[in-house]
Amino acid sequence: MGQREGRSFKEILIGRPLKSRELFLERLDILSGLSILSPDALSSVAYGTEEILTVLVTISLAATWFALPIAAAIVLMLAILVVSYRQVIASYPSGGGAYMIGRDSLGTLPALMAGASLLVDYTLTVAVSVTAGIDAIISAFPQLHALRVPLDLLAITVISIVNLRGARESAAVFKWPTYLFVVLVLCMVGVGLLRGGWHNLGVRHTWAVPSMEGVSLFLLLRAFSSGSSALTGVEAISNGVPLFREPSARRAQSAMVILGVLLGSMFLGTTLLAHAYAVVPLTDNTVLSQVAEHVFGRNILYYALAFSTMAILSLAANTSFAGFPQLAFLMARDKFMPHFFQTRGDRLVFTNGILFEAIAASLLIVVFGGHTSKLIPLYAIGVYIGFTISQVGLVAMRLRSALQAGRSPWSDLPRSAFNAFGALLTSVVVVVFAVTKFSEGAWIVLILIPLLILFFYNVHHHYQAIAQELRLPSPEYHPAPERNIVIVPVASITRVVAHTIGYAKSISDTVIAVHVSFDHTESEKLEQRWAQWEPGVRLVTIDSQYRSVVQPVLRYIDLVKAQSPGAMITVLIPEFVVGRWWQGLLHNQMGFLLQARLVSRRDVVIAMVPLRLSGR
Amino acid sequence: MGQREGRSFKEILIGRPLKSRELFLERLDILSGLSILSPDALSSVAYGTEEILTVLVTISLAATWFALPIAAAIVLMLAILVVSYRQVIASYPSGGGAYMIGRDSLGTLPALMAGASLLVDYTLTVAVSVTAGIDAIISAFPQLHALRVPLDLLAITVISIVNLRGARESAAVFKWPTYLFVVLVLCMVGVGLLRGGWHNLGVRHTWAVPSMEGVSLFLLLRAFSSGSSALTGVEAISNGVPLFREPSARRAQSAMVILGVLLGSMFLGTTLLAHAYAVVPLTDNTVLSQVAEHVFGRNILYYALAFSTMAILSLAANTSFAGFPQLAFLMARDKFMPHFFQTRGDRLVFTNGILFEAIAASLLIVVFGGHTSKLIPLYAIGVYIGFTISQVGLVAMRLRSALQAGRSPWSDLPRSAFNAFGALLTSVVVVVFAVTKFSEGAWIVLILIPLLILFFYNVHHHYQAIAQELRLPSPEYHPAPERNIVIVPVASITRVVAHTIGYAKSISDTVIAVHVSFDHTESEKLEQRWAQWEPGVRLVTIDSQYRSVVQPVLRYIDLVKAQSPGAMITVLIPEFVVGRWWQGLLHNQMGFLLQARLVSRRDVVIAMVPLRLSGR
Q1: Do B613 and A466 touch (CB under 8 A)?
Q2: What residue in B sits closest to A504 (Cα-Cα)?
Q3: Which of the residue ranges A578-587, B136-145, B546-555 has the most confident prediction, judged by mean pLDDT?
Q4: Residues in A 384-403 with any Cβ partner in B closer than 8 A
Q5: Tens-place pLDDT, residues B218-247
Q6: B217 exposed, middle or buried (CB, 10 Å; 0-12, 13-18, 19+)?
């Protein structure tokens, strides 16, 4: 590391650069793997119940009863997804994700649809997880209320920096917040149901179905859509199969079941208790926090839950910070996203993807004022599109491989039927989501996804066109400029100009000095001095009525180009470099202006010829 | 104007570009000249009385009586300044200003002191005038209270745009608001004193001196300092002598007297009425506005005064927008300020000075929350330093010219004595100001002025050093590089690389292609293809463990430089240009990175060799 002297600010922030061969993966056991891949799903407990209740209270307090059947339906869907994703894991042990599955089995359009949906959803996961995490902290410390958005942005910054450092030591870091959150929520549910909760349920006599007054199918479906955000992230394990120690597919499948059981019981338990304690959503106190207050009181366990909620939501955001850059990398490799998403930074992570996601999520948070419930209608629709494409892709793949192997297409019927049913269910959720949440914000996503797909196609087409144009027309292609005309703008005769003219004469026989004149007397003096000093180089004087240097020089270049087609034109700008940065501000920035204007012209090479002066 | 197709946004905003020969001055009669040069001084009536009262009410309500003698003392000082400045006009008919007078008669340090003071004060004039103008509007429409700072910034933006357009049609624009303000204030004073005011004065029995309890000399002097902000701007006429029609000095002297009479009577009258009506400063209602309410009631005259106050304060800010760029230009011409303050923009105004002042004033307003009374302690000290230097300079100049002409140095005694007395008075005000306002904010200015002077000296020294270095060492100086080595970074063999190599071979015999390798197999393949395609150009492969292209190329350049001292090194970066801006983002920005890193190295010329591709 000879060229690296001392540690730059960047190094202190994100750590020493890693060599390419240091890229490796730690292989994990079931629990460690689960602790890395589950936070996205488990953390949904922090807002799932709340989102259902937020819709139902708009009908009536009594209507909150419907949270119970809705939660049950969502848990049923969870069970189906767990079974379906066990099969995805078996068929895709390399951990494909919806984009890869779609690409391999359904074609480009479904793959890009999955890609667009997931990129949008990864970004929303970061935004929603961060705002929900800060909500948990604000519930515990309401005096922080006014700092909501700054705290959100601070959290994103911290998570971005952690990710830019690389999450290689992650399992050790991830384990404890995840375990703590799971244990505390299960403890809350257990204690709550056994002790006070059960009793209160009786007191409210709320097992009975309430009056249906004001209750419409539309509103119930909307509540169901909101609640199904609780299942976002369950696909993470199937994407991360290679993280597990061998036999990794088997371990991943077990992790999937454990995740399903944990998530189901935590979500259902919280919803039951919320109903038992007649909790309704408040601005500065989350439903989970209110339930915890009822069960624990405001004691150490309550605050531990608040912080572990914040922690697991941060981990969920973190998961997404791994997912987005990885997917962007895969799509960039396939030339559907800009190349720069392929570049690994000093710490071997996809720096550009991380920065891009951080900025996009920050913008979302600022635009929506950090309100979780305003972000939720945009969220989850992409995840369910991904669910659907994965499962349809699986069915298509089995059919194809059966046909290729000469087996009956029906040989995999039971499993395929299950996946098809899962796909049907999740696609229905997509439609329900789109319809019931449309006016609340889902329209943004429904416009954004097609736009992104269009963008992917454009990028792909452009890269292919460029690749075509870049190919040598023949193996013996050696283009050479007919002639090289060098133009040097000069203001006066100085050492810097002399230096540039000397260089210009060394690279071409045709050197023209151009002087832009504001004042006849002065330019005549210059012409005389020039004729004495360097009679071999022609000095062209151009009058400028508008005190602009750049415009007349550009016009002169156009003139020379028109007169000498086929010639290469090189513009050399005499420039002196001074010692300190502020001194640079004291001199004319004409070179930069000219360069900025010339940079897009074909056949014009522009360079500043620097001469260092001390300025002291 | 062949090259200008259609009107750009800039043209719509600030108007068509003007030719250099369109620079001329309209010559004005006394009243028109006064209307352009007096708003800065006259508008001080909007806050002068208020600033005195703000200090006095901190003692007691009764102590506000002291506003009367303080105002009288300030008006006396005004009279002395008017007489003194009539002599400045006579001696400096070209309209010098404190910087020019100081430079010509006292030397560099006093001149720079005056320059620094006035630049600071011009900026503060903009800030104070704008906030006070918006205060007048908020007094009339208190519901705008919350928009104070945005309104301030909007006002600065509008005034900046007006100035960027150039204020050539200004007299016509300036006349009416100035006349209206003067007439309304005089009308208010007259009506007030004749009718209710006089009566109330009697009612309050306040002619008697109140108890001196709690009244300290320090506080009275502080009140005096605050009130003397009412005289800021009286020097403007002496700076603008050439604006008047011939005999311009005589006309300017008459204008000076008129200004003194108007300002004195308006300021004294307002202070008397404020006392009569027992007005004290309020947050959302200025003293001037309260007095007007008492005299007029909230009728059309009241609102007319509010708007004309806002208007004349805007004109005051405008005056300062002429003064700052003009002074910056003069100092830049003397090489004490950066060159760019000398550039006239499309509309022949000093664009950079205007923008710089607008940004500085906006920052001040934001930092001080748009509160006029918080800005006032910073204000005026610079103006009084300018007053002092002008008058001392005048005395010194007379002495010198008397000595040069062989006259007795005492020949000008009466006039010189008067100027010396004026200088003594204003220098005492500076000291009183510095002491009594020190902790409230004057310390900022007292630190800033020496720093600025230091900056001016540094700039001057730097420009002189550079000018020295730029001079040709001999009339026959023709430096030529011993050798020109061209380095071309290549990633693969493409049409763009072929184009750049062709160009490189046309400008030098020594062309080296450099490839940064991340992968041995690929770089070996490239080496084989290269040997077949272009055996005449050496390809150097450098391994990069850290996936960086820029670092290894820089190290290679250093190596070549070390091996070939005296050679000129040219780096040519193959680059393709695509049709649309967004397509540019899809390609590696390696060229820009390399250029940014190389730009400060001596003896390295860097250029991108562009080839246009369609990308379609």
Answers
A1: yes
A2: B480
A3: B136-145
A4: none
A5: 889 889 988 988 898 888 888 878 778 888
A6: exposed
Interface of A with B in 357-376 (CB under 8 A): none
Report d(CA B135, CA B492) in Å as an integer.
Answer: 66
CB A297 within 8 A of CB A213: no
Kindly provide the ipTM of the predicted complex, given to two decimals: 0.73
Query: In whole angstroms, how far apart are CA B161 and each of B165, B323, B340, B434?
Result: 6, 16, 19, 35
For residue A605, give the chain B residue with the closest CA.
B609
Q: Which residues of B touch A479 (CB under 8 A)?
A: 498-499, 502
Q: Do B605 and A609 meet the contact criterion of CB atoms below 8 Å apart? A: yes
Give the predicted TM-score (pTM) of the model: 0.69
Chain A contact set for B472 (CB, 8 A): 493-495, 498, 533
Residue from B519, B521, B583 to probe the interface with A (highest A Cβ count within 10 Å): B583
Measured distance CA(B462)–CA(B456) in Å, rounded: 10
Domain ranges of chain A: 25-463, 484-612
Reduced to 3 states (helix: H, G, I; strand: E, B; else coil), residue A574 is: strand
Considering only the beta carbons, identify the residue of A343, A462, A479 that sits closest to B586. Answer: A462
Contact A503 B518 (CB under 8 A): no
- Fold for B484-612, please state it: Rossmann fold (3.40.50)
Residue B515's pLDDT band, with cuts at 50, 70 and 90, is very high
Contacts of A340 in chain B (CB under 8 A): 588-589
A542 touches chain B (CB under 8 A): no
Inter-residue contact A178 to A35 (CB < 8 Å): yes
DSSP one-letter string for B69-130: HHHHHHHHHHHHHHHHHHHHHHH-TT--HHHHHHHHHT-HHHHHHHHHHHHHHHHHHHHHHH
Write out the CATH class of domain A25-463. mainly alpha
Nearest residue, CB atoms, B470 vs list A18, A339, A494: A494
Q: How far is B593 from chain A (nearest CA, A)?
A: 14
User: Starting from the edge strand earliest in sequence, which strands make up the sheet with A510-517, in order?
Assistant: A538-543, A510-517, A484-489, A568-577, A604-612, B604-612, B568-577, B484-489, B510-517, B538-543
Q: Looking at CA atoms only, how far is residue B471 from chain A in angstroms?
A: 5
Contact A124, A382 (CB under 8 A): yes
Q: Which residues contact A522 (CB under 8 A, 6 or more apart)?
A: none
**Quick check: B541 contacting A, CB < 8 Å?**
no
Under 8 Å CB pairs connecting chains A and B tally to 206
Place B20 in a pLDDT band, splitting at 50, 70 and 90: low
- Residues in chain B within 8 Å Cβ distance of A503: 480-481, 484, 568, 605
Does domain B36-390+419-463 correspond to CATH entry 3.30.1330.60? Answer: no
Who's near B288: CB < 8 A, 6+ residues apart? B45, B46, B47, B49, B50, B136, B185, B270, B305, B309
Q: Does B210 touch chain A (CB under 8 A)?
A: no
pLDDT higher for B354 or B172? B354
pLDDT in tens, A587-603: 766 667 777 777 656 56
Burial A129-154 (b: 16+ CB within 10 A, else e): bbbbbbbbbbbbeeeeeeebbebbbe
B15: contact with A, CB 8 A cutoff: no
- Where are any strands of DSSP class E within A318-425? none
* B605 near A CB under 8 A: yes
Other CB atoms within 10 Å distance of the CB of residue B18 = 19
Torsion angle, CA of B212/B213/B214/B220, rounded to 10 degrees? Answer: -10
A471: burial class by Cβ within 10 Å (0-12, 13-18, 19+)? exposed
Contact B471/A at CB under 8 A:
yes
Percent composition of chain B: helix, strand, coil (DSSP 3-state, to 5): 70, 5, 25
